[in-house]
Amino acid sequence: MIKHIKQNPSDSSRRSFIKKSGMAAVGSSLIYPSEMFGTPFNSSDSILKVGLVGCGGRGTGAAAQAMQADPNVVLSAMGDIFEDRLEGSYTELLKVGGEQIKVDKSHKFIGFDAYQKVIDSDVDVVLLTTPPGFRPDHLTAAINAGKHAFCEKPVAVDAPGVRKVLAAAKMAKEKRLSLVSGFCFRYDNAKRATFGRVLNGDIGDIKTITTFRMGGELWYKERQPDWSQMTYQMRNWYYYNWLSGDFLVEMSVHSLDLMSWAMGDVMPISVVATGGRQARTHERYGNIYDHFAVEFDYANGAKGYHFTRQQSDTSRRNSVDIFGTDGSAVINVGRQYEINSANKSWKFEGERNNMYQTEHDELFAAIRSGKPINDGEYMANSSMLGIWARMAAYTGQTISWDQAINSTETLGPKNEDYDWDYDWKMPPIAIPGKTKFV
Q1: Which of 88, 93, 321, 414 is most buried, with most CB under 10 Å away?
Q2: pTM of the model as a whole
Q3: Cα angle value 24/29/31 (rounded, 5°)
Q4: Can you say whether residue 185 is alpha, beta or left, with left for phi > 0 and alpha for psi between -120 and 50 degrees?
């Protein structure tokens, strides 16, 4: 059983917890002490081979950033379930990667087992960017094989998947492998500076955090005559919770990760939520919701609130407001980063960076130096926040941490059932009060 970090009610200050646990106030990743450093990867002149698993837009971007992070990195293998996605990605990468793209025909792998073929193809680093339903198995296979990994968010769609990722992250520590998360906000200069000040106590003890992620509808792929039901769902993976986890888990989880970061990555003790489908009601939108509202309850009395929707022709917002005993922090993502306090008012005016590129810059620098980064625990727990909130909204129940992390509900078919002709039946759209917690 995975244990939740509980706070002592007599010492419930978030800052006290952070200081006593020795957590760094600034930065995003756990860096190991010097005595644990592994052997550097030869030298800066040696070639690091990268394998890409999942060749959509995010995967293509990640591969390009990996090439830009280190001049002696080459892309040597690619895998996807769709050949057209792989070839489209390959063509785009040739434009930006040039001589660093060294993927011959024998190292282009297609199918549900393409990830394993990439891992087995003598690569040093794998980029895991498929739909998140596959992530736990892909990450486990990569770490088992001794590969460094970049792992897109979220890392799972259900609690069993999160537990599997936590086990893989522990194994990565033992093997001194670098594991960098796709929770890119933790690699953004403005957010690192702002959250560093929050964690250092500039606004006192946190009482309330509100996060918003409001936006419109996204893409949809029209069904083609030769598509099986599995093909159709895979092409439209976003709208099926066994593949995406629902949009709260797939996209809005960024906001939940920011909330968790501000709280020192201490998990709440219970969650209550609501949600449903108001605008995105057509059957082409699978079985996911289009809005959620969530309350997270922490052991020290703090509250976290998250509001999210994907509905066309509605106002947009991507913000975090943190209220403490001595002031507040205001984050309008991409635009405004401020601390408002009687004693320590502050506004970020430092150098901005490309957080996506920084993820890979720091990953490959860590591999070169033998000083591993491991984002595994927080990336699993932040993903679990979204899964937990979805379970509360789907069922209409207040769910504790112990219930959530030990849930046995597994979304999607078993690995052995992955086949283009497998007629995976979409579970019904969840109805609060009728859908049961498992």
Answers
A1: 93
A2: 0.90
A3: 75
A4: alpha
Q: Rounded to an integer, what is the distance from CA 175 to the centroid of its chain? A: 22
Evaluate whether 150 touches 313 at the Cβ level (below 8 Å): no
Largest CA distance in the chain: 65
| CA–CA gap between residue 379 and residue 384 (Å, rounded) | 9
- Is residue 221 within 8 A of residue 415, CB to CB? The reply is no
Q: Give the dihedral sign, CA 198/202/205/209.
A: negative
Residue 295 backbone phi and psi in degrees, to 5? -120, 125
- pLDDT band of 7, cuts 50, 70, 90: very low
249 burial class (0-12, 13-18, 19+ CB within 10 angstroms)? buried
Q: Which residues contact 283 (CB under 8 A, 6 or more apart)?
A: none
List the structure tokens of 153. Answer: 């968010």
Q: Which domains, and CATH codes, for the chain?
A: 19-185+371-376 (3.40.50.720), 188-354+380-417 (3.30.360.10)
CA-CA-CA-CA torsion sign (362, 363, 364, 365)? positive
